[in-house]
Write a structure and sequence with these properties.
Layout lengths: L2 H25 L3 H21 L7 H8 L5 H18 L3 H4 L3 H26 L4 H11 L4 H10 L4 H29 L8 H6 L1 H25 L4 H22 L4 H19 L2 H33 L5 H31 L8 H9 L5 H12 L5 H32 L7 H29 L3 H23 L6 H25 L5 H34 L3 H13 L3 H21 L2 H13 L1 H28 L1 H29 L5 H19 L10 H6 L9 H10 L1 E5 L4 E3 L7 E7 L2 E5 L2 E5 L4 E2 L1 H5 L7 E4 L3 E7 H10 L1 H13 L4 H8 L1
Antiparallel strand pairs: 1-8, 2-7, 3-6, 3-8, 4-5, 4-7
Helix pairs in contact: 1-2, 2-3, 2-14, 4-12, 4-13, 4-14, 4-17, 6-7, 6-9, 6-15, 7-9, 7-18, 8-9, 9-13, 11-12, 11-13, 12-13, 12-14, 13-22, 15-16, 15-18, 17-18, 19-20, 19-25, 21-22, 21-25, 21-26, 22-24, 22-26, 23-24, 24-26, 25-26, 26-27, 27-28, 33-34
Length: 834
């Protein structure tokens, strides 16, 4: 075929892609639907002009269109990795984890149920063998990521609904393709009869092997990217190779799922990339992948649509009935999962609740597309599949895909509107009216200053001011009609606005590199969680999310057990260092919020709401300070290094800003500016490196680190080591209760403890002791001790403590200091204790 014609055809397809987006916006139809319709028209036109006797002038063009090398492998090996990889890069993984149960239910369970529902329904109404019917069920059971994601991002769907749909469409391809491979082996002629048990035994390898391949490939790629961090184009080029190497490596090397490998690689880069790559390089990498995915998604739809006229050429009237059966069986299977299984999982407290309108939208949003057509094409290309099976598979898959795109796709926007999911809630409506009124007041003040500064014509200024004043009066009047908003709703609105400003501040600090990119994604996710918690649960939800942001999670507790019981320290080191940096970043951000409360929220919602928000901010800051204090007491040296690192990053940002200002003012040229910025970048790489955190302290070293045991010889230390018991305490747990009997003295080997007695509070860290005063004074404990960080305590019973006190001057001096701190006569304590 003439290469010039092929090039012209491909260039023309890009023209169609360029015209499809504004056409879709004008017709208010999904972009993918427009692409599919245009592809069908082009394919039908090519067949018509090639077969008509009207003219032969367009035959070369028609032959070039129909002769394009469109094969199933082109879709699966070229386009699918691009779409999956870009989708994973654009996902907010930490927010998606909140809905991992419904996502996995739809991505795995729903695919299996749909496969068997469609398969058995077809076997009852057709003469096809059951294996062929199940093959059709596997082909039509996967929702298409390019169809679903593009549509839900183009309409005003709630973010949670879009996350569930995107997560399902991203992950269900692996399950559907695995089932496709299983049933394909049962319908192929000349192939030894497969065993179902052998096929099912391959499933764990498909999943685990694909995940391991993707993770390993991504880790190697990230390591190479980090080496080339000064070369942005090299970083982007490596990222382009990553999904294809992962896909081919999994499929061809170990026989695992290439889809799972690409998803695992994308998730790994999504999580690790921001912390290992320069922020600007990461931003540009994401933009390049957005463009690649846009082209890939458009081409896959057009090229797949070009095949539809050929796939439907041999359609019969009886096939329409079979298409109807497939449609009904697929929708019914999806409805069973959404309205039967998901509510049951919620009732059993396994899954978060998914509201009924959301489930209805998900039901109608299960669109099929190019992936379904690619799998059907793979069947029609195989000479080992019986001719009638090939014909029916092509027709049913194509007919069902057209139904989902043309019927469901074109009406999805209306369904979401009918379900009320495209409207602002009453509280958001009230918020918008209040915000417009305040914003226009601010704009009027700014415009007045601007017109005065530029000395504009007085009459023109007065005329425009009158028009603007009318608009402002109308906005104020509209806002006042919602004056019956309850204080509770105003507090909720204020918290939503405050969390939104917190998120914007985080993004600003990340761009300025004051907050490291490593922490950016985690902190932004916490801000998103605050917004949704305030929207769903008001003040209580916000406070719960705020407490969660400083709490030690389950992963931290597991890491502590691994360190303390098995001596595996790496997970605890990483989580502790992350927690240090996250708390420092939170403290920085929270101190910026008071000005926003006074400058904005007070004007919208009044003094009472502003004062309450100030109080909530004070509690959040206190919680962060307490958590940070616990770590500082536990690892004082590491805390100092992190603060020094923060100061260095801030200074570098200010230095960079000064050089940019000097260049804009013409004080330095481009050559000098480039040299200075290269020097800044070298120093920034050094400043970005996180200081090492050493937590691997052995038991013997635990005892020697206490100054109270400094005067003991080696034999005494060994005897003491045999007498001390080790106790591990999670953050927030009570170590010593008020009014309990005094039987032991505690020494803090690692962690931090807060003592409270009445209104007095003391915080103790590594090397400190507590519990000795009650023993020496022979009284019940008057203070309560609570761990404010995961802590390792060494416990000594009363008898051994008294014996040790008599022969250790250092321990006696520590007791005196502790008594003075509490306002107690130290000599009386020692005398009583002796």
């Amino acid at each position: 075929m003439d290469i010039v014609l092929i090039t012209a055809v491909i260039a023309s397809l890009f023209l169609v892609i360029g015209a499809a987006e504004p056409l879709a916006a004008r017709l208010r139809l999904p972009y993918t639907v427009i692409l599919a319709v245009l592809g069908i028209l082009i394919g039908s036109g090519a067949i018509f002009f090639l077969r008509t006797d009207l003219t032969d002038a367009l035959n070369p063009i028609a032959e070039a269109i129909l002769g394009l090398p469109i094969r199933s492998n082109v879709f699966l090996y070229v386009f699918l990795p691009t779409l999956l990889f870009q989708a994973t890069l654009g996902m907010n993984l930490r927010r998606m984890l909140d809905d991992w149960v419904p996502i996995l239910t739809l991505a795995v369970v729903a695919v299996v149920v749909a496969t068997f529902s469609v398969g058995f329904a077809l076997s009852w109404v057709s003469a096809l063998p059951l294996a062929a019917c199940l093959l059709i069920g596997a082909i039509v059971s996967t929702t298409d990521p390019s169809a679903v994601v593009s549509i839900f991002r183009s309409i005003s769907a709630p973010r949670r609904l879009a996350r569930i749909i995107e997560g399902e469409s991203l992950l269900n391809d692996a399950a559907a393709i695995a089932l496709f491979g299983l049933f394909m082996s049962f319908v192929m002629l000349g192939v030894p009869d497969p065993k179902l048990s052998d096929a099912l035994a391959r499933f764990p390898m498909l999943i685990a092997g694909g995940a391991a391949t993707g993770w390993l490939t991504a880790r190697v790629a990230i390591w190479v990217m980090a080496l080339f961090r000064a070369h942005e184009l090299a970083i982007i080029s490596i990222s382009v190779a990553l999904p294809y190497l992962a896909y081919i490596g999994a499929e061809q090397t170990i026989g695992a799922s290439g889809v799972i490998a690409v998803v695992a690689a994308g998730l790994t880069l999504n999580l690790a990339g921001p912390g290992r790559l320069p922020p600007q390089a990461w931003k540009n990498l994401r933009e390049v992948w957005d463009l690649l995915a846009h082209w890939a998604g458009a081409l896959i739809f057009i090229l797949a649509a070009l095949l539809i006229p050929r796939l439907l050429e041999e359609i019969r009237w009886s096939d329409f009935a079979l298409i109807g059966v497939v449609i009904l069986a697929a929708i019914a299977a999806r409805a069973v999962i959404l309205f039967g299984l998901l509510p049951l999982l919620t009732l059993l407290r396994i899954s978060p609740a998914v509201e009924r309108p959301y489930r209805s939208a998900i039901l109608w949003g299960g669109l099929r597309g190019a992936v379904t057509l690619a799998l059907a094409l793979a069947v029609t290309e195989s000479f080992r599949v019986p001719v009638e099976v090939r014909r029916v598979v092509g027709i049913l898959a194509t007919g069902f895909t057209l139904f989902t795109l043309i019927v469901q796709g074109t009406t999805l926007r209306s369904v979401i509107k009918w379900l009320g999911l495209d409207h602002l809630s009453p509280i958001d409506e009230a918020m918008s009216r209040q915000v417009v009124a305040v914003a226009l007041q601010t704009v009027r003040e700014d415009v007045a200053r601007t017109t005065e500064a530029y000395a504009l014509t007085h009459d023109i200024v007065r005329s425009e001011a009158r028009l603007f004043g009318d608009r402002l009066d109308e906005a104020v009047k509209t806002a006042e009609t919602t004056a019956d908003i309850s204080d509770r709703d105003r507090i909720t609105l204020g918290l939503i606005a405050l969390a939104g400003f917190e998120r914007d501040t985080i993004l600003t600090r990340v761009r300025e590199r004051i907050i490291s990119a490593r922490m950016a994604d985690r902190i932004i996710s916490e801000a998103d969680r605050l917004i949704e918690a305030a929207r769903a649960g008001g003040r209580g939800g916000y406070q719960k999310a705020a407490r969660r942001s400083v709490a030690y999670g389950r992963g931290f507790r597991v890491a502590t057990v691994l360190h303390s019981r098995l001596g595996i320290s790496a997970p605890l080191v990483r989580l502790t260092a992350d927690r240090f940096e996250r708390l420092l970043s939170q403290r920085l951000i929270l101190r910026d919020l008071d000005a926003f409360i006074d400058g904005r929220i007070r004007r919208i919602h009044g003094r009472r709401v502003a004062e309450l928000l100030h109080e909530l901010m004070a509690r959040r800051i206190e919680a962060v300070e307490t958590a940070l204090s616990g770590l500082q007491l536990q690892y004082p040296g590491h805390s100092e290094e992190l603060e020094r690192r923060f100061i260095r990053r801030t200074a570098l940002r200010m230095e960079e800003r000064e050089y940019a200002s000097m260049r804009e003012d013409g004080l330095i040229g481009a050559e000098v500016y480039t040299t200075l910025m290269q020097d800044v970048e070298k120093r920034r790489i050094s400043a970005e490196a996180r200081p090492h955190l050493d937590i691997a302290v052995q038991r013997g070293e635990f005892i020697r680190q206490f100054s109270v045991f400094a005067d003991l010889d080696d034999d005494a230390l060994r005897r003491l080591g045999r007498s001390l018991r080790t106790r591990y305490v999670d953050a927030g747990k009570v170590v010593m209760r008020r009014d309990s009997a005094a039987k032991s003295v505690f020494f803090i080997a690692s962690g931090a403890v807060e003592l409270s007695q009445g209104r007095q509070v003391w915080r103790l860290g590594r090397g400190d002791m507590f519990g000795q005063m009650a023993i020496l004074m022979s009284k019940a404990r008057r203070a309560e001790a609570r761990a404010i960080a995961p802590s390792t305590l060494l416990v000594l019973d009363e008898a051994r403590f008294r014996a040790l006190l008599k022969r250790s001057p250092a321990l006696q001096e520590a007791v005196r200091a502790s008594a003075l701190q509490r306002g107690i006569d130290p000599e009386m304590v020692l005398k009583t204790g002796g």
